[in-house]
Structures
1.
Amino acid sequence: MKSFTSRLKERIESSQSWLCVGLDITPEGMGQKDASFGDVKQHAKMVIDATKDLAAAYKPNLAFFERWGIAGFEWLIEVIEQIGEGPVIIGDAKRGDIGNTAKQYAKSMFDYFHFDAVTVNPYMGVDSIAPFIERAQYGAFVLARTSNKSAANYQNHEKLGNPVYISVAKDCQGLNSNDNVGLVIGATAPEELKKIRKVAPDLPLLIPGVGTQGGDLETSIKIGNYSGPAIINVSRGISFAGDHSPDAIRKAAEDYVSEMREFMNE
Amino acid sequence: MKSFTSRLKERIESSQSWLCVGLDITPEGMGQKDASFGDVKQHAKMVIDATKDLAAAYKPNLAFFERWGIAGFEWLIEVIEQIGEGPVIIGDAKRGDIGNTAKQYAKSMFDYFHFDAVTVNPYMGVDSIAPFIERAQYGAFVLARTSNKSAANYQNHEKLGNPVYISVAKDCQGLNSNDNVGLVIGATAPEELKKIRKVAPDLPLLIPGVGTQGGDLETSIKIGNYSGPAIINVSRGISFAGDHSPDAIRKAAEDYVSEMREFMNE
C-alpha cells in the first residue's frame, strides 16, 4: 500500500502542479447573499470541473458543509465523488481530540468520507496526532504555524527556546515512520517557514494564506519545496475569481500553476 | 436574553448538581463489539432517561456521532431533542478555525444543532474564539489545560512567564463581556486549575478527567467552584457503570451528585 506522502508526490509530479484548491463556498463569497443551497452546490461543481486537471489537491473545509447541516454532509460526499481519482483530497477539519475520540474522527474522515488526508489541531499534544497516522495510506497535516493574524498568540510560546510551532514540527518529523505526516504553515509567516523546513526537512507542507491573506507565493513555493514537497492552497482567489464564470475560474487556476512552475524551474 | 453563564448557573442552582454527563457511546465501550447502531442509540437514550433530573449538563462528543456518518448526525439531532429543556447541552466539538470559517461552525452548532455551548480549540489564537461568543445566549468552553497525558507537550510552553494555558485563560477572561466564555481544565491537573482560577475568577469551568482518567473530584469541585461555577464531566463512569442497566447508570450518577453536594456543603 502506497504511503500518503508518496501518493502526494506522484500527483505533484504527474500534474506538474503544486496547487491545492480550497473549497470554502458560501452565498456571501459568491456575492449573492440570497443564493440557494442548490446555487452553492452548483458553484462548487463548476470550480471542480474547471480545475480538475490543474489541481494537485483539493481541500474542502468542513465548516462550509456543516453549516448546511445534514444536507451539507450529503453534499460533501457528492463533492468527494466529483473530484474522483487523481487529485489528493484533504479534509480541512482541524480535528483535535485524543485517543479513542480521535480514533472515531479518523474512522469518519477516512473510512466514511474517504478523504486521503485530514488537517489536525495539535493543542492536546502528540496523543491527538497519533490516531490519524496509524494507516500509511492516509495522512495528517498538523497545524504548526497558521496564517491568521492571531496565530502568534499561543503558537509562539516557548519551551527550551523552541516555540510551539517548532516543537510541533519536530514531534511530527519524529512521528513520520509511516511517511504520512505533514504540516500546515501559513504563507504569511516566511521566517517561520524557513525554521520549520530546517527541523522537518522531509514532511509535506500545506501552505495557505497566499492571495487574499497576502502571503508570498515565491517564498512559499521555493522554501516549501526546498527539501520535501509543498502544496499551496488558494481558496477565494480561484473560487471567486473575476466574474465567477468557469473561464475566469480556470484562468485564475492556470495563472497560479504557471507561476508555480516558473518558480520551481528557476 | 439570558446569557449562557446565567443559564448554566440557574440550572446548577435548580438541580443542585454540578454533574455534566458526557455522551461518548461506542459498541466497544458497551462491551459489545458487534452492537448495532440501533443498540448504541438505545444505550444513549437509556443513559439520558436515567440521568435527566440529575444532570446540570450533557456533553455529547461529536466524534462518537460523526463516526456513523450522516446517520450519526441524524442521531445527534435526536439526542438533543431527547435531552430537551432543562439541562445545558454542550457540543464537544473542539472546533478550531478562524473568522469566516469559525462563523460557519457557529451557525452549525448553535442554529442548526441547537447546542447551548460548544468546546473550542484556541490553537489559532483569539480569532478562533470570537465568532462563537458573539451572541450572549450561546457559550464557548475554550480548551485551556486538558486532562490527557500529552497535554503539557504544547500547553506548557511559556511567554513572559505565562504558559499557554494561562494566556488562554487570561484572554478568555478579557473576552467575557457577553458573560458566555468558559474554560476546559482537566481534573488531572489540580495545580494548573488553581492557577487558572486566579486569573479567570468568573468564568465557568468544564472539568473532565474525573473517574477513569484518575482526576480528583474533591479538588475539582471545591477549587473549581471557589469563585465562578464549575461542572464536572463524567462519561464512561456513568454510561458504562456496573452492569450497564438503567439502575446501575442512575446509581452511578446519584453517587457522583451526592458526593459533589457533600463537598459543596463542607
2.
Amino acid sequence: MHTRLCDLLGITHPIVNAPMAGPAKADLAAAVSEAGGLGLIGGSSGDPEWLRQQIKATRERTSRPFGVGFISSFPGLDGLVAVAIEEGVAVIAHSFADPTPYVPAAHAAGILVLAQVQTVAQAVQAAAAGVDAIAAQGVEAGGHTGTSSATLPLVPAVIDAVGDIPVIAAGGIADGRGLAAVLILGAEGAWIGTRFAVSRESAGSEWGKARVVAAGTDDTVLTKVYDLISGSPFPAGIADHVLQNRYTRTWHGREAELLQERTAWRARLEQASQQGDAELAAVRAGNVAGLIDAVEPAGDILRRIIAEAEAILRRRPAEVLG
Amino acid sequence: MHTRLCDLLGITHPIVNAPMAGPAKADLAAAVSEAGGLGLIGGSSGDPEWLRQQIKATRERTSRPFGVGFISSFPGLDGLVAVAIEEGVAVIAHSFADPTPYVPAAHAAGILVLAQVQTVAQAVQAAAAGVDAIAAQGVEAGGHTGTSSATLPLVPAVIDAVGDIPVIAAGGIADGRGLAAVLILGAEGAWIGTRFAVSRESAGSEWGKARVVAAGTDDTVLTKVYDLISGSPFPAGIADHVLQNRYTRTWHGREAELLQERTAWRARLEQASQQGDAELAAVRAGNVAGLIDAVEPAGDILRRIIAEAEAILRRRPAEVLG
C-alpha cells in the first residue's frame, strides 16, 4: 500500500499517530515511525526543555522521520515550535488554531507542516496558509475534536475544497476496515488516536487503557464537562470525546450548575486522575473504543491495520463489482 | 455492483432512501424503486387512510419492490403497520423504537423487516428480534438521528455484533465516494436521506431544498430546539440534525429558557414553516449538505452515485495497492 502521503512524508505506510497530549511521547512516536508510519510527539504536554528531551529520546529510538504536533491554542506555543524547528523534526502538526503564522519558518527550515481541522472553513484557511497536508477530524475522534461534522462527510468536502493537498482522515479509524474505507473515500492516509492511546508504548495510564478496552461503541460522550473545570483554552466549537462515567452522567447537560462548584471539582478531578478513579477522571476515547479489545504494541497494531486494509482492498471490490 | 442486500430485497442497486416524514412520499419512493433501489415511503406523515393512498400511488408508478418506514416511537403505529401489511408492501422499516413486537406479523405476511439503529445495543436487540437487515445510522445523518456514534465507527461495530445480518450504512453518504467507502467498510448498502430530500420528487418544500443546496458541511447543528417545541415523541438519545439558522443560533444551548416560551414559539415556528422562513423554520439536513449542489431527479442521483462508486471501486484500490 502506498499513497501520495507516503511520498510526501517519506514513510512506508499512510498512518500518522495523533499527537495526543499525554499518551504520545517518545516511546509511541518512535514505535509508530519504526513500524513505517509517521510518529508524532504530543508537543503540548510539557515545556520547551521537556520537548527537546522527547525529541532526542525519539531520535535515539528511530532513524525514520517523525514529528511533533501541538494544541496550537495553548499558551507557550512559540517556544515549543522554536524547539521543534531547532531540533529539525521532519513534520510539525498544528491543531485547534490557524496554522498560518507558523508555516513560513517551518518551511524555511525544511520542515513539513500538517494542519488538523474540524471544518471545511478551517481546511480552506490551512490550504491558503500553504500547509503540506490536512487532517480532517470528525466528531467521532477521541479526545478534543469538533462538534460539527463526522469523518465520512467531512473528508470528501475537504478534498473538494483544498485541491491537490493530501487529506488525511482523522476520527473513527482503528482497524483495517476503517483505513480501507477512508482511502476509498479519497483520503491519502489515516490519523489514528484512540487505537494508539491503547498501545503498550502509550504514556497514558494503564487504568485508562483498560477502561477503553472494556468500553463499547455506545459508551462515549462528546462533552465540555472536563474542559469547563480545567479551563484548558480550546477554541469555540471544540468538545472532548471521553468515556461516559458517573461524572459525565451527572454533569453533562448541567454545565451551568457544574460551574458553580468549579473549584471543588478541580481538586476532586485532579485527585481522581492521580488515583485512577475512572468514574470521575476523564478517559479520552472516540467511538472506536468498541473496536479495541487489547493493549498491544503500537507496531503490531499498525502492521495489522495495514495488512487488513490491503486484504480488504484486494477482496471487497471484486465481491461488490462481481 | 451487487451485494447481499440486493438479493435480500430483490433490487438492482444497494441503495435505500430514508423514509423521511415529509419528503418521502409516493413520488420519491417510486422514483427510487424505478431506478433500481429500494424506495421507502415515510409512513409516519399521515393517518392509515393517507398511508393506504400513498402505497397505492407508489404501486401505480412502479412494479418494483418498495416499502414503508415508520418513526416507530410515534402514537398510532399499530394502525399504520396494519395498512402496510394489508397492502402487502415488500418491506417495513422501523426506526426510533424496538422493532421486536412487529417482526412476527410482518414475516407471517411475507414482508421483510428493516431496523434502523443508532447504537450497537439497539442493533443487538434488532438482531435478536429477527429483522432481515439493520441500518446503522451515524450522528452525521440529516433529521432525527443518534447522538452517540458516527457512521464510520458504528458500522463495523454493528457488523461485529450482529453476525450475518446485512448492515446498511446510514448517515454521511451523498455521492459515489460515500457509497464506495461504506461498502469497503463492510456495509451491504447505503440508506440515503438528505441527498434524496433534495431531489425533484421529494415532497419537501422547495425553499428548504434551496437552503440545503446553498449550505455547506459546516452549516448544520444536531439539536433539540425544534423537538422541544413540537413535543414530537422521539426517544432519549435522539436529536435533530438541521441547518443552522437564526433560531438555532439563538436557542441551541439555552433550551431551559426556550421551554419557558414554548407556546409562543410553537405558533411562530408553524407560521415560519408555512411561510418558508428558513431563519426560523427547521430545514433538516446532515453534513452531506456540503456535497449537494442541485435539485435533481432522484433516479439521476441514484444512477450517478452507483456509477461513481463503481468507478472508484475499479480505480482506487489499484492506485493504493500499486
